[in-house]
Design brief:
eight-stranded mixed beta sheet; 2 domains; alpha/beta; Aspartate Aminotransferase, domain 1; about 40% helix; Aspartate Aminotransferase, domain 2
Length: about 375
């Protein structure tokens, strides 16, 4: 029986060459050559001016929160259907996450629910572009302008996706991208912060160097560096950056392949949706996605755990996704929510994620879909 993994990291270009170049250079403490090359390529691809490579998307979110001047008592609106890092970035600074329900078709934050959660303490909104599919940015930007709120994009899953002609992560005041090994483009573990202002870019250099102004020292602006700001060890390593550079160079090929695989799933599972057995992902007309994830939402008559177990017995790895933050112990302790969260509670119990990675083939998808159809009869 052939095993089909849920996710696999794959070498796609010059990963080994660049990593060997770094090791052979023996310049472990040298300027961040590979990181700078990655940032330059990211800036060009996303048509932006300022990016900062970090050791994780979690770090990028935390830097964004520091740049946003989140402080004790500030409230930040976000979806509950997200990873803990989204909320942790606020809680670590004394802020309070305010959880809002999601849209049942895109699984992104429901823009129509946001205004109900706004209070005089609201400082910002964090949107999460789930599965690389854009949130309704037009409505959300209007709300931010109306109430003078900052907008942070958790674009962890969205490198290469667009809202109309705008790259996700580049639209808000700050954007955070993940290059974790589960993402389309990977450095095994890594992330990136996107900013619009030069002052934020300079301050972000201090923040990721433990709050020291080492950036000024390296650029000859001071003869020694000091602790000048809140910060931590957020900077990406050259090891991960050398791997990332090779993947970034092939991002168009990776995206094209993943979208083809996504389309194969979508076509093969059309009949199950017509029968009312599942709900397939919905692509709004304003979105160009990156093929990051293929999921289905099972009809409520099915036992998801049983389906996952049956697929596993056939050699197919599948999984659920987030446990909603508003129901979690930390979410109840540090956050709040203002609605019944019906969609979030419902979807989180029924969503099933299927394998999607660069080593997958059309034949693999046919096998997965055949097995799934037989189990959902």
């Amino acid at each position: 029986m052939q095993k089909i993994s849920f996710n696999e990291f794959s070498l796609i270009g010059n990963e080994k060459k660049y990593l060997n170049n770094f090791i052979n250079s023996k310049k472990i403490s040298a300027p961040n050559i590979f990181s700078k090359k990655c940032e330059k390529l990211i800036n060009k691809t996303l048509n932006i001016n300022y990016s900062l490579l970090t050791n994780s998307c979690t770090s990028a979110l935390e830097i964004a929160s520091i740049l946003s001047k989140i402080k004790a008592g500030d409230e930040v609106i976000m979806p509950s259907f997200t990873f803990s890092s989204t909320a942790n970035s606020i809680v670590l600074l004394g802020g309070k996450p305010v959880f809002v329900d999601i849209n049942e078709t895109t699984l992104n934050i429901d823009a129509n629910e946001i205004e109900k959660a706004i209070t005089r303490k609201t400082k910002a909104i964090i949107v999460v572009h789930y599965a690389g599919i854009a949130a309704d940015m037009h409505k959300i930007l209007k709300i931010c302008k109306k109430y003078k709120l900052l907008l942070i994009e958790d674009a962890a899953q969205a490198y290469g996706s667009f809202y109309r002609d705008l790259p996700l992560g580049s639209i808000g005041d700050y954007g955070a991208i993940s290059f974790h090994h589960t993402k389309n483009i990977s450095s095994i573990e890594g992330g990136c912060l996107i900013m619009k202002k030069k002052n934020d870019f300079i301050l972000s250099q201090y923040i990721c160097d433990k709050g020291n102004n080492r950036y000024d020292f390296v650029n000859g602006k001071t003869n020694k560096y000091n602790w000048v700001n809140l910060g931590s060890s957020y900077r990406a390593s050259e090891v991960s950056s050398s791997i990332l550079l090779a993947q970034l160079e092939k991002h168009k090929n990776i995206k094209k392949n993943r979208i083809n695989l996504w389309d194969n799933y979508h076509e093969n599972l059309n009949d199950l949706e017509k029968l009312g057995k599942i709900q397939r992902p919905t692509l709004p007309d304003y979105c160009q996605h990156n093929g990051h994830m293929y999921y289905i939402v099972l009809d409520k008559i099915f036992d998801r755990a049983r389906i996952i177990k049956k697929l596993s017995r056939s050699g197919i790895e599948s999984t659920f996704h987030y446990i909603p933050l508003h129901n979690s112990p930390a979410g109840l302790k540090y956050g709040k929510f203002v609605s019944e969260m019906k969609v979030t509670n419902n979807v989180s119990k029924r969503i099933l994620r299927l394998p999607l990675h660069n080593n997958l083939s059309k034949k693999h998808i046919e096998i997965i879909c055949e097995k799934l159809k037989s189990y959902l009869k």
